[in-house]
Structures are given as structure tokens and as C-alpha cells.
Amino acid sequence: MTYGVARLTPDEQMRLERAYQDLMLLASECEVPAVRANARAALALVAQALNGQGLRYEHYSKNLKRL
Amino acid sequence: MTRQELEALQWRKLQAALGHAYEGSPFWRQRMDAAGCRPDQVRSLADYRERFPILTRDDITAAERDSPPYGTLASCDPRLAIRHHQTSGTTGKPPVRTFDTARDWAWASDMWCSGLYGMGIRPEDRAAVAFGYGLFIGFWGLHYALEKIGCTTIATGSFDSEGRIRLLLEAGITVLACTPTYAMRLALTARQMGVDLRDSHVKLVVTSGEPRPDATKHAIEEAFDAHCLDTAGMTEAATIFMFECPEEPGGCHIIESDFIEEVVDPESLRPAPYGERGVRLMTSLGREGIQMFRYWSNDLVVRRGHDECPCGRTWDWYQGGIQGRHDDMRKIRGVWFMPIMVEDVVRAMPEIDEFQCTLKTIDALDTLVIQIEPRADVPAERHAELAERFRAELKRQVSLNPVVELAAAGSLPRFEMKARRFKDARPAPTGTPA
I need a surface site. Which of A60, B157, B301, B315 has the fewest CB within 10 A? Predict the structure, then answer.
């Protein structure tokens, strides 16, 4: 392999999960458009970070409460 | 990840993806109902490969035609889209139109990250993307992936070839991304400018968009004094599904964490074993908007087991990447022919700059006519000898005896994306519908 494989610690895993849940709430419900937009962009990246580690795989956009 | 763990991950994602499609897409719901393949009826990965219906491009365009742009295909509200792309339409067929949600695009660029990081690209790299940045998805995902990795990323969409060469030299570019055809064109333009690209800092040329024969890889590596590593993707997937491993030249690992790839015999549709050429079927596990299950790609590939590559990854790979298109294959006087076979011979002969193939009927016989354009610095008195040497080499390698015609310098078309160097000009057989 051209590079070593690093793994998340349990603490990092927990932080990532927490970030996902916090961002999901802001992306879905926050009334401030600029915050909602940035939270939604960040949520996509954090969701992919979880997916890439095999921790969470969700088709979440249909659950967002606002467009 | 062991193969067993990988298959468990694929199965978990597949079940969720099928459930999402069934719930959200009228097209997929109808298809699964009709085939007895509702999410709860698909019992395993093997059952899925055995029974789930194959999806064709015609199926997609028919679904989209009903209510454009996405028809009944979308699995979530298209208003959640942040991007729209469509195929280039070079085949003359209606384009396939797709969209990505923010979630989809984060995934798509991550697939590119897997490939680019695997090739050795790191945050300190400075990358130039030679691409038109239009409707065609092309290198859009690569651009976002380079940014995600942390590279300095330079979009050169508005530059001409001379401008791009000056930029390569002046901006300290270490990574160039373009089609193989365009890399060859840059090499030609540099030569005409009196520039030696080996003096640049480019250490890696990332290619995509077309099949890339070995001889083209070697010609690019020689011109830039850099590695040339390939990728392949499709608009239907939004991203790449394979990337060339630095430790196995020509060996392209499938990103199996996010794609289920099958290789089937094009006639029997039964699985082709490792080492045998077939057509790849793609299942993309990544998207929530436009989903693909067992999509007939038309790409011809030869699959190899992961343990045949020395890198240690547990992902299988395609030997030589995409070896051609099933719909480009022609039988000429009993010999199977693909246009990429000509490119392989041309790129090993540096005196030839460009070529075009036309399949014609001459004296009632299928005949391959190839126009070649000698390099501008090859003296005219050597052209006939060059043409004869090319004909003999093609006959030796491909067992075809083409008619070779010489074209004037600069007269043949040049391409940046999706080169079209093959034309079938034979009259349609009597009785063939128009």
C-alpha cells in the first residue's frame, strides 16, 4: 500500500456522530437562511465522513423539513 | 477490510438503497414490483445479481421522456438538487439527465478523493484541470475532490492549449487532469512552441473520459516525464468507480465500498469469470436522487482478483481499465475490431500525430480506411514509407489489412473530450429500419 491506514478513535467517532446530529437539526429546522444553508453544506460532508468510515449510511435529504 | 466485511457492507448499503428507491421513485417501484424484486424479496447479494433486472440507457431515457428532465426516475424531490448534469450526446442519442443533492455531491467528490489520494496526490500539490466546465460532468468531481484534499486547484476552462502550457510552467503545476487525447494534444502543442514539458514540475497526469491504451499511457509519460494514471466514471453514476493503482500499471481498482460491479458475457448475460472480457454492470450505492441498479454500461472490461495486485487493497481491479465499448465493436471480414486497437498502434509511432478510421464498403467488402496525419517535421518523402510501416504494423497486431491514406498536417479534427475517431459509413443492410 502506498500509505498507512488510519482509524478513528472512539472519542473521534462520538464527536463525528454528535456533529451530524447537531447539523441535521440546524439544516432541517433553523429559521436563519444563511445558517441553514451552511449547515446543510456541512451536513453533507459530515454525513459522507460517517459513510466513508462505514458508520452511518442514510438517504437523509427527504427528511429535511424545509427546502 | 476483508472481502467478507466488504460484502457485508455492500449488502447493508444495497438494502438501504433499494428501500429508498422503492419508496421514492415511481420508476423503480414499478420495476421492482414487476420483477418480484421488492426490497424485502431480494434475499442476498447473489440473489440480487441473479434476478434483479438489467437497466439500459434506453430505459433511463424513456423514464425521463415522460416528464422531463428527470421523469419518474428520481428517488427524492428534484428541488433538493444543487447540480444538474447530462451526457454529452456524442452518440446521437437523447442525453441522460441527472441531478445531485448536497449529500450526493459530497459522496461523488469523495469517490474522486479515493482515487486521487490512492494515486498519491496530497495537499501540497498544485493541480491544473484542463476541462470545459460545462453540462458534461467530466472533471467537475475531480475539481471538488482536489479542493477537499487541500490541493491548490486551478480551473483552466477558458485557456487554449498554449495558455495551458504556459500556466503549467509558470504556476509550478504538479498534477494535470485531462483526457488522454488532450494530454497528447498538449504534448504536440508544446513541441510546436519549442517547449519541453519534461522541464515542468508535473509529476502526475490524471486521465479520464476515454479508453486509454497502454501505448498512449507511455507516450504521455514520456512527453511529461511524469506518471500517467487513469480513472473512469459515468454521468449516470455522478463520479468515478475505478482508479489506476500506482503499483500495477494499467490495473484499475474498483471502488467496491460504493459500487457493486459485475462483468457479464454480452451474449449470454451470465457472469464472466476473472480474466475474461465482458460488459460491466454497475450498481451505484452512493446517490439518493438518481439511483442506478445493474446498469448496462457498454464498457468492455477484464476483471482481476484483488490479490493479484501487490498494493494490498482488497478491491478487485480491471486490467487495462476500460478496454473499449461493446457498441463500438465491429466484425470486419471475420475479425473483431475496436477503434482503440488502432490508437494502440498509432501512439507507439511518434511520427504520427492524429488519425481517423472509417469503415466502408468497397467492392462489396467491408474495408477499414485509416487516415493518418504525419508529424509536421516528418519530411514528405518519408510519408509513403510511414504509411506502409503503419499498415504492416496494424496487420501484424490486429490481423486487419486497412487502406491507409495520408492526411495533410493539421487537417484531421482534434478533440478535448470524448474523441470520435471512428465512423461506420457502411450502408445499412436492406430491411433495416431507418
Answer: B157
- The pairing of strands B204-207 and B251-254 is unpaired
* Chain B environment of A52 (Cβ under 8 Å): 110, 257
The 10s digit of each residue's pLDDT in B313-365 is 999 999 999 998 898 888 887 788 888 888 888 888 989 988 999 989 888 88
Contact state of B77 with A62 under an 8 Å Cβ cutoff: yes
Nearest to B302 by CA among B323, B282, B327: B323
Distance from CA of B80 to the nearest CA of A (A): 7
**How do beta strands B365-374 and B403-406 pair?**
parallel
Quote the percentage of chain B above a pLDDT of 90.
76
Q: What is the pLDDT of residue B338?
A: 83
State the ipTM, two decimals.
0.96
Cell numbers placing B204: 502526475
Q: Does position B237 have pLDDT exceeding 50, yes or no?
A: yes
Given CB atoms, is B224 within the 8 Å cutoff of chain A?
Answer: no
Q: How far B317 CA sits from the closest chain A CA (Å)?
A: 15
CA B104/CA B308 separation, integer angstroms: 32
pLDDT tens, residue by residue, B269-316: 999 999 999 999 999 999 999 999 999 999 999 999 999 999 999 999
Chain A positions in Cβ-Cβ contact with residue B311 (cut-off 8 Å): 1-2
Contact B189, B165 (CB under 8 A): yes
pTM for the structure as a whole: 0.89
Minimum mean pLDDT among B166-170, B226-230, B356-360: which range? B356-360
Helix and strand numbers (H, E) in chain B are 11, 20
Q: Which of B76, B80, B100, B103 to mutate to test the interface with A (most CBs of A within 10 A)?
A: B103
- Please indicate if any CB of chain B lies within 8 Å of the CB of A65: no
Contact criterion met (CB below 8 Å) for B84 and B290: no
CB B48 within 8 A of CB B281: no
